[in-house]
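Quarterly update from the structural biology core.
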Amino acid sequence: MLEKKRVAVVTSDVPFVKGGHLIIAQSTVKALREYGYEADLILTPQNRFGYQFRAYLATRLTDLGEDGLGRKIHQVISFRFPSFAVKHSCHVCWLNHRMREYYDLWKLLSSQISFKRKLKENLRKIAIHALDTYLLKHNVTRLFAQSKTIQKRLKKWGNIQSEVLYPPPPQRSYYTDSYQNFIFSVSRLHKLKRLDLLIDAFKYVKSKELKAVIIGEGPEKLNLTLKIQKNHLEKRVFLLGTTDEKTVMDHYARCRAVFFAPLREDYGLVTGEAFASRKPVVTTEDSGGPAELVKNIERGYVLEANPRKIAEKLDELAENQDLAETMGKKAFKFISLFTWDKSVENLIVCK
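Predicted structure, tokenized:
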């Protein structure tokens, strides 16, 4: 009997936060197992500001040459920082992002901290740029970016070459039930996810029947709640908090469209999940990965990050269910091109 190839899927763990990268990593493990590989998920630390280098060192010292039974691990597939620091002779990185605060979000970070701390963080930024560049050029066998947005960042910061490989939707039970008159959004409630744009848009939505449902938890929950109350939108915009997967799938299945407009998102699995549920996505020009996937007026709308502009298109969808269905069908056809068998075929480089 031939020995199964063992693959370690590695990503960093953020305590109490289940990010999109983790869901994609879990789906990768499941897909590898379905295609005959022995796969397991390894979580490495991702320490907070001031302790990042400890996480890089701990990851570098993680031994993935053998499993717990002394059997050879044939390949590693890593994801977000600093998981790509792990050492292995056959190492594929399917990158979703480096530490964004030291890259595309540096201006935002530096504008919010003192001059003294800015000097300290700038030194860390320089060191992490050098470390990431070395690891991604010399520590990995093959480098895939999960979107063109990530690919451009790799080129801009480090002149690092990569291939784009979009992740398929996570392996969940997607289905389509109806196109009811509500806009759905599911996300961590964080400033970068910009759920406030959706709430502000509802100040200008003319359709009285259209509602918005937001699922998620996070530090912006109170601010979003106050914004809803301030604008007297309690009967139109609903924050449901954390729910189970069945409830999320149910809302995807029943909504008219999905709103997902984060700031310069790396990939954004919500877009693929909406498409898999045959629903169009309303996003913005500066959303990064989502804007790549949503072709304007084909699979949704790519708009200015302007509440009035967003409201116009939400009204358009509210008034025309057939339009939402047509876009949703095109979205489903598009996302069906991204399959886990193709992903596995690309990711496995050591046969």
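The mean pLDDT is 93.
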